[in-house]
Amino acid sequence: MSEQGTILKPESTGTVHDEPGGGDLHAHAVPLWMLVAVFAALIVLTVVTVAVTYVDLGALNIWVALAIAALKGVLVAEIFMHLRWDRPFNRILLIGSLLAVVLFIGISLLDTSTYLPEMIPGHAPAIEQP
Amino acid sequence: MSTATGNAHEGRHELAHYFDSTRQQFESHKLAMWLFLCTEILMFGGLFCAYAIYRANHPEIFLYAHTLLDKNLGAINTIVLLFSSFTMAWAVRAAMLGQRRLLVGLLVVTLLCGFGFMGIKGIEYSHKWKHGFLWGEQFDYTEAVAYASGKGHGDDHAAETGHEGAHADDEAAIHTEVPAATAGDEDAAAVMAELDQAAAVTMDHGHDAERIPRNLHIFFGIYFVMTGLHGIHVLAGMGMLTWLIVRASRGDFGVRNYTAVDLGGLYWHIVDLIWIFLFPLLYLIH
After folding, report:
1. Is residue B8 part of a domain?
2. CATH number at residue B266
3. Tell me, what's the pLDDT at B147?
4. Does B226 share its domain with B270?
5. How far are the Cα atoms of A71, B59, B72, B263, B270 from residue A74, in angstroms, in the given order?
6. Is A114 on the interface with B (CB under 8 A)?
7. Per-residue pLDDT tens over the stretch B186-234
8. Contact B273/A112, CB-based, under 8 Å?
9. Complex ipTM above 0.90?
10. How far is CA A4 from CA B3, B16, B56, B222, B243, in A?
C-alpha cells in the first residue's frame, strides 16, 4: 500500500508509463445512456418476473423465472461488469465457473430424480418403506 | 487488489516493477478479481445445489413456505440493489473520466443503498424471528398455522391479522402440533401409520381447510443460509465502499488510476448478480 512497497521502473519515474503499441492504460468508460438503458431493462425484467408468477405455466414457471434471471445476469455482467469490452479470458472464467455449478447441480439432480418415484410424501428420501 | 497501485498522486497509476505496462498491470488485477468472483460463484453454487435437491424432493414445502415471505419487501430490495449496481457502474465511469465529486457522490449513494438493503433485510428477519419461521427445531408450527389462518388467501400484508388469528383459533392450533420435530428417528412402520395425518397438518378454518406441509423448517434453513451469506457479502461490500469513499475524497483516483473503483465495482455487481437469482427462487415460487 505504501510508496515504499512500489518499485518503479527506472524509465517510468513515477509518471504514467506510456508505451507504443497500446501498453498504456486506456480507460473505456461505458456511455451513460447505456448504463441507464441497462438499469431500465433490469427494472422491467424484475416487474416481468414478478408478474409471471401470477400466470400458471405449470412446470415452466421455474424455467421462465430462471431465464429472466439469466438475462438480467447477462446484462449486469456484460455492461455493468464491463465484460463486453474486456479481454475474452475473463468471460471464459465466468462461463467456466457457471458450467461447473450447472454440472454440479445437474448431476446431483440426476441422482435425486432416481429416488423421486419411491419417495414418501412429506418425508426425507432416506426413510425406507416397510 | 490495489496493493501495487501504491499511494498514487493526482490520480496517477504507478507501475509495479514486475509489470511491463500499466495496461498489463490493470488487466492482471482484473483477472485476479474475476478469479475471486468465480470462487464466490462456486461457493454459492453449493447452496443453490442444496436448494435444487430439496426443492426437487419436496416441492410442497417450497410452494407453501414461500408464502410466509414478504414478496413486496423482496421486490423492493431487488430494486434497491439494482439501483445500487447502476450507481456503482456509473461511479466506475466517473472514476475513469476523473469526475471526482461525482465519483464520491455516486459511491455514497451506492453505500446508502447497501444500508437500505440491509435495513429491509432486518425488517424481514425480525418478522421471521417474531413468528418463529426459523431453521430446524426453532420452527414454530403453531405460529405458522395461526399465521396462515389469519392471513387467508391472496393477502400478503396480514402479519397483525395473523396474530389475532392465533388467539381466535387456539383450539385449532393445538390440534396441529403434530409431529414436526420428532420425525427424524421413528421406525418406518410408525412413520407409515401416521402418514395420512402427518403428510400435511390439516386445519379446518371456517369454510376453508388450510393444509400445511411438514418440515417447513427445511425451507427456512435454506432461506437463512442463502440470504444470510448474501447479506454478509453486502456488508463486506459496504466496508469496501466506505474505503473507496475515503480514498476517492482524498483524491486518490483519476483517469489513470481507477483500478480499485473498477474492481470494487465488480464485487458489488456479483453480489447483485447473486441476489438476482435468489429473489425469484426464494420469493416467487409458483
Report:
1. no
2. 1.20.120.80
3. 75
4. yes
5. 5, 28, 25, 18, 11
6. no
7. 444 444 444 444 444 444 443 333 567 778 888 899 999 999 999 999 9
8. no
9. no
10. 11, 11, 56, 47, 21
